[in-house]
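hi got a favour to ask and not much time before my train. below you get a single protein, a line of residues and a line of whole numbers that encode the local backbone shape. could you go over both lines and see whether the tokens make sense for that sequence. a few lines back from you is plenty, here it is:
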Amino acid sequence: MGGTRGETPGEPTGETTGESRPRSALIALSQSRALRYLAEHSALGGRIARRFVAGTTLAELLAAAEAMNRLGVRVTVDYLGENVTNPGEALRSEDRYHQLLDEIARRKLDANVSLKLTHLGLDVNQALAHKTVEELLQHAIAIKNFIRVDMEGSAYAGGPLARVRMLYATGHAQTRELVGMTLKKLDLPVQALYSTLGRTAARTLETKVIADAMQGWYDELIANITAGDVKTSNETKWDPSAWPDAAKGAGFTEAPRGALAHWVVIKDGKIDNYQAVVPSTWNAGPRDAAGQEGPYEAGLKGHQLYDPMQPIEILRTIHSFDPCIACAVHVTDPDGEELIKVKVR
């Protein structure tokens, strides 16, 4: 059914190095019906899975969450699985998450839900994924809760192209017009967006959408200021003298390159630990636990180099992700011998 993860507020959840391989195996289990059946119905499989999976029924999952709450631990609950292949599976996954949210509210649990976009139809239809996640988000808001989006085990690029694709798929009029004009001018199909050209074009088209919206945002800002709304922060939380001995916080936003998250732990008025997951960390990531290629590798796959000694094609493609890293390109022959090394500063 699903799992629970204990956490302290304001800190990212995770696992120790010793658990990474078994946990990766469990992700694979969730994707294989045969292996999943073995894990859920055999004694040995059940003993192995129980360390990581709270139960195979909603009742078992909720009982585990209640037990964690009694120990003073907040929990995140999820339903194992991802990469559904048809709308029916996506809608069934959504129904299960609605049930989880209802039970969390009814039992007054200190808990939230974590979901995967591919579990809710991202690989089937982007508009379907947008609809299912939006409905779950509105449900969570209605019960004064929230949802986490967990992309574990999936290799998907963030940034302008991802946002333009979502706007296009959900019918955003200006985005569809701009994309249509661009593709018509270049005499290309919509599939051409999945390319170096598409990522570069998406950044330009998104800039146009944002620029056109800025006057409206400015007018709203001036209207708020005129009405006396001039606060930019919760001032009662800003003064360090008002902080407890230990404080934790987290911030999430959509930066130009993609999703950005920061976590901070403060003790005695000083930063004790700080962690950030930045867009380039995600986009430049290696293959995941299921062997899926990271965005950079997938973007370079199948490239033909006009001159291997001057691999400008590689440079163009990596630059289309707008990487915030210091990097170098190593070009090797089929035997693995290095032909040239190009440093990018």
In short: Residues 196-226 form the longest helix (31 residues). Residues 160-226 form one domain. Residues 330 and 336 are 10 Å apart (CA to CA). Strands lie at 2-7, 74-79, 111-115, 147-149, 246-255, 258-267, 270-277, 327-332, 338-344.
